[in-house]
Amino acid sequence: MGGHRYIAVEGPIGVGKTRLARRLADAFQWQLVEEMPDANPFLERFYEEPGRSALATQLQFLLDRYRQQRTLAATRDGRGVVADYLFAKDQIFAEMNLTGPELALYREVAALMTDPIPTPDLVIYLEARPEVLLRRLRKRNREFERRISEQYLDALIEAYRRFFHEYTDASVLVVNCSAIDFVEQGSDLADLIREIRGVRQGVQHYIPLGSQ
After folding, report:
1. Residue 149: domain span
2. pLDDT in tens, 115-160
3. Spatial CA neighbour of 79 closest among 20, 22, 32
4. Which of 102, 12, 101, 114 has its CA nearest to residue 58?
5. CATH number, domain at 114?
6. Domain count, the chain
7. Pairing of strands 81-83, 6-10
8. CB distance 50 to 163 below 8 Å
């Protein structure tokens, strides 16, 4: 695997992070780590009233992810790991959805989390056009996700791009997946795995033939 023993799959909502992480963990016979966003009791309320529930939603995600990463650090047994999120991405949503004193409080709480957590060797950053994300969200048909607009997805895509433009903690493989399906098409997954095996340091871009 080119030295990669911990891979995090990232990208905006609806891009297919969890499905790809599951397939990669199965292909490599590695441990799978999933963030389970549906377990956040504030999430549905956030989509109904973002201004009133954003801070609670974000702090719950921060605490859940931190606890999960600390558990991972304490229990890793030498097997490789595939996660369907990058812990550092929490700040993307905090900076999008919080302002003023609420953002300051979030940062104060985050600063208290000083125990070391595992850093991925490789981040697979999935990109897709907003209309593709919206179509995929509608297809999976979660009630609260029906309130997500294309405008919100536009802003989220841009926030992810800014974040990964400055991210240097691990190698990054940027993958355009607007027109491919790594889960349904075995050949797409096989091509991606070959690309993963060849990743070295820094940022690399992978545009599958189906995405052109």
Report:
1. 6-211
2. 999 999 999 999 999 998 988 888 887 777 777 888 889 999 999 9
3. 32
4. 102
5. 3.40.50.300
6. 1
7. parallel
8. no
